[in-house]
Specification:
The longest helix is centred in the middle third of the chain and has 14 residues, at 104-117. This protein is 54% helix and 2% strand. It is an all-alpha fold. It has helices spanning 15-19, 53-63, 69-76, 88-100, 104-117, 122-134, 138-151, 157-170; strands spanning 32-33, 51-52. It is built from 8 helices and 2 strands; from the N terminus they run H-E-E-H-H-H-H-H-H-H. It has a two-stranded antiparallel sheet. The chain is globular, with a radius of gyration of 18 Å.
Length: 171
């Protein structure tokens, strides 16, 4: 999907075409959000059904924050200040997209929000460690990598290159 933002004509884009079918399903009240009005096409109304929050995360994973960080940011960013977000993977996906756009401080904030829900989420711990490293916060990065190793001892080789890098920077 491309858009010419200098052109004042509304986009002829259906919500279902943009997000895919099944994204607008009924869900329980605690995790529902309205569809963003920017995603609506010409003459289209906000769907009566709430947006299923978990589907945003699934869509972000399909978009892939490594290959398409801009698309993931467009999809997830409108919800980042919602008080009812209790999905750690939401924060992880948005953090990955931010980090891949070199928006490190925003990535750190997203990972921290996810870890506030549960401080022992290995992927968030690892990704926060990476972002701290890019931000030269080596002490905080080391804490996150050590926690990741504790939580995922069979995958500790994943952190070794980062730990070695940090040690080289500090020494």
């Amino acid at each position: 999907v491309t858009a010419d933002f200098d052109n004042k004509e509304p986009l002829d884009l259906s919500v279902m075409d943009f997000f895919g079918k099944g994204l607008f399903e009924e869900i329980s009240p605690g995790n529902s959000f309205q569809a963003p009005t920017w995603a609506l096409g010409v003459g289209e109304k906000i769907p009566d059904k709430d947006l299923k929050f978990g589907e945003l995360v699934k869509q972000a994973k399909k978009l892939n924050p490594y290959k398409n960080p801009d698309s993931v940011i467009i999809l997830l960013e409108p919800y980042k200040e919602k008080p009812l977000i209790d999905n750690q993977e939401y924060f992880n996906q948005l953090g990955l997209a931010y980090q891949n756009k070199k928006r490190t401080l925003e990535a750190i904030t997203m990972y921290q929000k996810g870890l506030a829900l549960n401080p022992n989420h290995p992927n968030l711990n690892f990704n926060l460690g990476v972002s701290y490293t890019f931000n030269s916060d080596y002490g905080d990065a080391m804490k996150q990598f050590k926690l990741y190793k504790k939580l995922k001892p069979n995958k500790s080789s994943r952190t070794e290159k980062w730990i070695t890098y940090i040690q080289d920077q500090v020494n």
